[in-house]
Design goal:
This is VOC family protein. By secondary structure, this protein is an alpha+beta fold. It is built from 5 helices and 18 strands. Strands 1, 2, 3, 4, 5, 6, 7, 8 and 9 form a 9-stranded mixed β-sheet that branches.
């Protein structure tokens, strides 16, 4: 059963790849992550990526029309896209695109004060977008200042407010964890550098996909024309590696190694 974005406001409800070539995107991510694709109700430029028949992401061939870079971007639910856009601008950030009307709602693309790009969505949220349960996709902001970033997104997206359904925010071991119904929906880590020579060390939202075998996935990415942008890192709960697709667009895959 579908819900409105106002019912799950503040939560990331979709991750979407902006690309210039739908066929190439389907071929790459189909080979690397085993996804299958179906048409989206948003229009001919859009596809829904499914893993084991469960929708996990969107792909949109909108780069030429909107003039945006190829990138994976999280979209956060808002009750009112115009209000969200105004809040973003009032806090010294930028609305780059929209809000634009689509078949099932309205979307906008923005950059926070440090340049990290994110989207916001007002409209229908399908049952495949489950911000109140654990799933194969999660998002993490690499920020210069985790506390300042949490304040910005909290004010824009109504995190940690008295509104019914507001997301909880906690500061744990130098990073910010955002939860809905005890499920982690996003995390903010400090450490990104604004003018770092490595563009992947600058403030940015990272999209993570869970995989059963990290090394096999990385090998498939290289064979499909992508690459490894960062070496594998290991924690008590997971292994992760940042890859690039055939067009150089970064994404991260994680393999669970233990219990949190």
């Amino acid at each position: 059963m579908s819900r409105s974005s106002g019912e799950v406001f503040g939560a990331p409800v979709c991750v979407s790849l902006a690309t210039h070539d739908l066929a190439a995107a389907e071929a790459f991510y189909g080979d690397v992550l085993g996804w299958r694709f179906r048409r989206s109700r948003l229009g001919e430029e859009f596809r829904v990526a499914c893993a084991d028949d469960v929708p996990v992401a969107g792909i949109a061939a909108v780069v030429p029309r909107l003039g945006v870079p190829t990138a994976w971007t999280p979209y956060f639910a808002v009750a009112d896209a115009d209000v969200a856009a105004a809040r973003i601008r009032e806090r010294g950030a930028t609305t780059a695109v929209g809000p634009l009307a689509f078949a099932t709602g309205r979307a906008g693309l923005a950059a926070d004060r440090d340049g990290a790009v994110f989207g916001f969505w007002e409209g229908e949220v399908g049952p495949e977008r489950r911000p109140d349960s654990d799933g194969p996709v999660w998002v993490e902001l690499k920020a210069r200042d985790a506390f300042a970033a949490a304040v910005f997104y909290g004010e824009v997206l109504d995190w940690a407010t008295d509104l019914p359904g507001s997301l909880d925010v906690a500061y744990e071991q130098d990073h910010v964890v955002v939860r809905r119904h005890h499920h982690t929906v996003a995390r903010i880590d400090a450490g990104a550098v604004e003018a770092a020579p490595d563009p992947h060390a600058r403030p940015r939202w990272e999209v993570h996909f869970s995989v059963p075998d990290l090394d096999e996935t990385a090998d498939r990415a290289v064979r499909a024309g992508g690459g490894v942008l960062r070496p594998v890192s290991t924690s008590p709960t997971e292994r992760r590696v940042t890859l690039s697709d055939w067009a150089g667009t970064p994404f991260t895959v994680t393999e669970a190694t233990g219990r949190p």
